[in-house]
Design brief:
Blueprint: E1 9-14, E2 21-27, E3 33-41, H1 52-63, E4 66-75, H2 84-100, E5 103-106, H3 116-131, E6 136-139, E7 161-163
Parallel strand pairs: 3-4, 3-5, 5-6
Antiparallel strand pairs: 1-2, 2-4, 6-7
């Protein structure tokens, strides 16, 4: 009989009222690659609770040889309305996370292209990433399409990461 043990260290950054969630950091092997994944909206995960998105992110990144992930979103609001301060704090948190990451994965999903505010926010973040010369990736399906969210049914259990096309998203 063999017993194995593992610990996943979790850190979550919120605003003071917990109306905005800026970052979830999961660390299970600090000696492996670090990923920053950028999605669209803050989910239900917290320090203990995992939602499906977070679970699929951790499972797939583990299979791909990562040991740490910072999860951020274009829109950090959990409750209430977005404020100028929450937008500023979110972008600041993303900038700090970029420095720690080996790879940045854009996983906002195909629907984000239809939302003007999402396109604007993604373009702001892409400008930051390109300025820092970050290694930007995206999730590709086995049928060749790219730019998926981790919950896309065909990709939940196996990701293929490919370079992100460095074009500004337009509507």
């Amino acid at each position: 009989m063999k017993t194995t043990k593992s610990t996943i260290k979790t850190e979550v950054i919120y605003d003071d009222d917990k109306n905005n969630k800026y970052l979830i950091r999961k660390e299970w092997d600090k000696n492996k690659k670090k990923a920053l994944i950028i999605m669209k909206n803050a989910g239900q995960a917290d320090e203990v609770v995992q939602d499906h998105t977070t679970m699929f992110v951790i499972n797939n990144l583990t299979r791909l040889g990562y040991g740490v992930v910072d999860i951020v979103n274009l829109f950090p609001t959990i409750e209430g309305k977005e404020t100028k301060e929450s937008v500023t704090d979110n972008l600041k948190c993303i900038q700090e996370a970029v420095v720690r990451a080996d790879d940045i994965i854009i996983a906002v999903g195909k629907g984000a292209e239809k939302i003007k505010k999402a396109v604007e926010r993604l373009n702001m973040i892409l400008a930051i990433l390109l300025d820092k010369k970050a290694n930007i990736l995206q999730i590709e399906a086995n049928f060749g399409r790219k730019g998926f969210h981790p919950l896309y049914p065909a990709l939940k259990y196996q990701w293929k990461l490919v370079p992100y096309s460095h074009t500004v998203v337009t509507q």
